[in-house]
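Please check the following for our workbook:

***
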Amino acid sequence: MNNFKDLKVWKLAIEVAKKTYLLTKTFPFEERYGLTSQMNRCSVSIPSNIAEGCGRKSSKELHQFLSIALGSAFELETQLLLSYEFGFLKEESFVPFNLNICEVQKMIIGLQKSLNLS
């Protein structure tokens, strides 16, 4: 599965990363080395690991990289929740973005299941 750019999950993960960067630009300046940096890094990790897994030779390796991408998606969701709790995001920004992240998580899990490694 070398053509990762055709995967809907990769495309949505790219959108999540772009939205993350836009959202974190609104965070307080003192968070640039805290949540801002952490959220930006893990958001980029999601599509990056999907792509890297697609470049591997076996389904088992792809599954492993999808697991890493999924972990990053859950990490990003946690950081988004914290950002909302700290008041860095308003509900109208938080809710749809959280839904996007959850959709990426579901799609990664679905792709993992389709690999039939059990």
Notes: The radius of gyration is 15 Å. Residues 4-114 form a domain with the de novo design (two linked rop proteins) fold (CATH 1.20.1440.60). Residues 59-85 form the longest helix (27 residues).
